[in-house]
Amino acid sequence: MPIMVQNIDAAAFQRMLIHAHAAINAQKQPINDLNVFPVPDGDTGTNMSLTIGAAAAEMKKGRYAGVGQAAQGAASALLRGARGNSGVILSLLFRGFAKAIKDRETMDGRDLAIALDFGVAAAYKAVMKPAEGTILTVSRLAAARAAGFAREEGGFESVLEAAIQEGQEALARTIDQNPVLKKAGVVDAGGKGFLVILQGMLDELRGLPMPETGAEDAAPNDKADFEAMSVEDITFAFDTVYIIRKKTEDVDLEPLRRYLNSIGDSLVIGEDEQAFKVHVHTNIPGDALTESQKYGTLELAKIENMRTQAEDLAAGKHVQSTDDLDAIEAELESGAAPAHAAPEKKFGYVAVCAGAGLEAVFQDLGVDGLVGGGQTMNPSTEDILREIDRTPAEIVYVLPNNGNIIMAAQQAVPLCQDKKVVVLPTKTVPQGISAMLAADPEASEEDNTAAMIEAFSRVHTSEVTYAARDSDFDGFAIKQGDYLALTEHQLFGTDQDLAAILDRLAHADSHQGAEFISIFYGEDVTEDQARQAEEIFAAACPNAEVTLLAGGQPVYYYMISAE
Asked: How far apart are the C-alpha atoms of 122 and 320, rounded to whole Å?
């Protein structure tokens, strides 16, 4: 019988977290598939993988004097890298964990049990209405078993193993604890992800090989690493890098920066007296190049399609790539630092959305910073904090526009030192737009906040998408590819005919009683198709003013706002 590991040091803890990231990255899609609704926006596995990936990247950077210091470094990285509710809860678990062992050079089983208990306490404290059958349940019962086992056997490995075993049993019971999980016939995705992470740590301790998929992932925000992403993770397809020779040495690049941020993300601009270098992820690289050439002459460019690269990688094919500008891209990324904007006005606004049309709407309404993301790719706390930092205002309002992003946005509040951050809990893009329409630059903070909350609270949001898989839900027999209509994220109806489901939706009470209806059509909808949707709503809702807008959003064919 092999000898069980009794304690670990900082180096072992670092290796365990790196292994844990590789483990969940390899299983992120099965975890995504556990998301209980058939809409193709399951992202728990992706969010947890990217969140723990931030900690893994931190662990690769250097040595720590003790396991407590290593845990503190991991917790700090997790805090900033947290994505989605599952990622935020994971960061809270590690925050409490790190607090319990902050002064420890090494860690035994009793220390582990205490740290797990501290982690659970921190997570429960932060969640307003903890529900059973979630990652909270799994982590709590795993920690309780660890505490009991530590009193009998104080070795680190044996206590971690006992915690995982109890966690697996708790995970199996989640299907009966949560009514939504029971209907879908699945266990909790967040709880599953948490156990995969713990198992990855245990596997490293036992010398098991690291999963190959994602094993060498870097921090998710550092660069366009197509090996670190699956196709569904990629919002902006083209990794674009180029050099522009300046017309004049003193050219102001701030307007260009704003434009490029409006059509993509992961923007970095480096410059000297003669030239500037750009790295950006976008779906329209030609537009980026055209706009940039207003400031000088294009000298060199690299454009790579990250979606096809990811597909080729997944299929085991040779991945085509250009490498002429790899050194330049590395230089830009390594030297990138978020620009800090000192307050110049009272109020500023940061909004989360995906789609060029939606971005343009928010910009027209006065939003200072845009964070790419939404249903299928939640931004991290660091992403949100970066835009807050760039916003030149004393008070910065953040519009998450998605229920799964609110917690990540709230984590940015204490991290911002020189600006007050107010997170408005908008759960949909239409809510965010209505909030901005009500914003008043001359009002007091209290009145402005109240007006924006009151405005978005009146908004009723419907969405039309498609089923990612077969499912039986709330009495609906759903087939893969069916059109799905949702109202306030609840299933309204299904149909194999898009016009039919739109007509049913238009005759719903929320639209029949509305004065204003706005239809935002997505990236997979043609203008002619969108006009047909507009005609359906105009005919069904003669008393409402119907407006059609090109949103460009992924996944959802239509997002419909009713007031």
From this structure: 46
